[in-house]
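Forum: Protein Structure Q&A
Topic: Joint prediction for protein chains with partners

I've read a bunch of threads here and the consensus seems to be that you should model interacting components together rather than docking separate models afterwards. I'd like to see that in practice. Below is the full input, 300 residues plus whatever partners are listed. Could one of the regulars post the assembled result?
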Amino acid sequence: MEDKKLTEKESLEVITSMIARTKFRYLGNANILLMWGYLAVFCSIPVWILLAATQQNVWNWLWFAIPVIGMLLTPIMARREKRTDGAVTYSDKITSHLWSIFGVSEIVLTFICLGFSLIGGIKCWTAMMVYTLIAAPFAEIAQGLIVKEKSLTWGGIVGLAIGMVSVCCVTGKIPLLASWFMPLFILFWVVMMIVPGHIINHKAKKG
Amino acid sequence: MKELNPLLHSQLRLAVMSILMNVEEADFVYLKEKTESTAGNLSVQLDKLLSAGYISVEKGMAGKRPRTICSITPAGRNAFEEYVEALKSYLNL
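Posted by a regular:
Agreed with the consensus. Here's the joint model:
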């Protein structure tokens, strides 16, 4: 392409051709999504085993490994991806903000739960789990709709269904026993992040 | 009939502006690849758009490599929209 003068028709062709070239920019890789998915699964399995084997609630502190490791790795991976992508689209920015809001709200909720526990002696940590199981699927469904990626939308819908069942169990005072709830929780991360992540990466490799 | 903005009525500058209208920001390599232009020519045209206040350019580092990130300014967005409106009247769209 050169710095040449154009006719009106050529101008229109340049505009439409450039819009088409940027419009069909691929969603990119889903390594961050996969990192969170595998992190949650590989953290849930030992917690499940330890809770079932020892019946000691102290193992629940291991859940904090998910946000701590995830929040350390996400900015590093995001910076690397931004470097290789070359452009940031509006949908990139919206979805990034969406997950950032979710992440910040999780941190705020952690402090609220901690405050309830330390000040009033009230154990409301289940709220964190319920919130995650509802809010994360909504973020994923929204992302799937924005970037038009069905695996994300459907992963989010299945995740939301698991979340709603969990909410009913909590409000109906059905105990979330490790024997049945932990496999369901692991399934939540698999359908929400691992399956869509591999589908997106497979599409990215195919180009 | 409204006159077409001469700064935008050039193949490469119009291509750059069309891309930047569609993304939040794009780096030099991305623009070069999408417009299929040479680095030297692209650099000259980016300077012209920058001088007109149509784009903003941020120079930084990506690891050990220099990275130039371009984004459209509100003035550039207005100019592009006016250009498209004028173009429509020329083409009777």
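Chain B touches chain A through 34 residues (CB under 8 Å).
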